[in-house]
Write a structure and sequence with these properties.
This protein has about 210 residues and is an alpha+beta fold. It has a single domain, classed as BirA Bifunctional Protein, domain 2. Helices cover about 25% and strands about 30% of the residues. The chain is built from four helices and ten strands; from the N terminus they run E-H-E-E-E-E-E-H-H-E-E-E-E-H. The strands form two sheets. A seven-stranded mixed sheet has the order 1-2-6-10-9-8-7, with helices on both faces. It has a three-stranded mixed sheet with strand order 4-3-5, with no helix packed on it. Strand 8 and strand 9 form a beta hairpin. Helix 3 packs across helix 4. The relative contact order is 0.21. The mean pLDDT is about 95.
């Protein structure tokens, strides 16, 4: 499948639980010839707790709901000003395993950040994308996937221009004291919609079978 055959949907601001159910429904109804899709959204404030997540990583109650979901990983925060990219991909058709897909998603985000002169990198021991902000390592993008019948849903989130303070009430991705950053901290002035429009085709290209990992 080439990058041009992906379907990209701009969903605007959505409720996380409703979008999660829509992804499950889409994945459950897929056929062998169903086109892969990328969904771009931002969510109302919510903490999501992945399959490996432990409630003790939510350090304080602050009025933001906690949603237990079926992606991999621990706890993270979603809110306005953050781009969420859901990747609905037939892994078998793409010739990828989960680890390979994660590496390609990271590579796509890193390539995109380079266009803003942000030097970013992945870490084999801790999926996601990191950059140095104020001299400290900080996470700018988080990843978490679910595979059903050889097809993925969930995806990644990138902090664009948001209130980062809710991250202080959790151990982000299960790591106590993990710093987080965003595009705005590097002087990048783009909207969530603009970020999604730029990033989606890069991710689609990285996930094509012919793309070198």
């Amino acid at each position: 499948m080439s990058a041009s055959t992906w379907i990209t949907r701009q969903l605007g601001r959505t409720d996380c639980a409703l979008t999660w159910r829509a992804m499950q429904d889409f994945t459950g109804a897929r056929a062998a010839d169903t086109a892969d899709e990328i969904w771009l959204t931002e969510h109302e404030p919510v903490y999501t707790l992945g399959l490996a997540g432990r409630r003790e990583h939510v350090l304080r109650e602050n009025g933001i709901p906690v949603l237990k979901i079926d992606r991999g990983g621990q706890v993270t925060y979603h809110g306005p000003g953050q781009l969420v990219v859901y990747v609905l991909l037939d892994l078998r058709r793409a010739g990828l395993g989960v680890r390979g897909m994660v590496r390609r998603l990271e590579a796509g985000v890193i390539e995109w950040l380079e266009s803003f002169d942000i030097s970013a990198y992945g870490k084999p021991s801790a999926p996601g994308v990191y950059a140095r902000s104020g001299g400290l390592e900080a996470k700018i993008a988080a990843l978490g996937l679910r595979v059903r019948n050889g097809c993925t849903y969930h995806g990644l989130s990138v902090n664009v221009a948001m209130d980062l303070s809710p991250f202080a009430d959790i151990d982000p991705c299960g790591y106590p004291g993990l710093a987080v950053t965003q595009l705005a901290d590097f002087g990048v002035g783009c909207t969530v919609d603009e970020a999604g429009a730029d990033l989606a085709p890069i991710l689609a290209t990285h996930l094509t079978p012919e793309h070198a990992a």
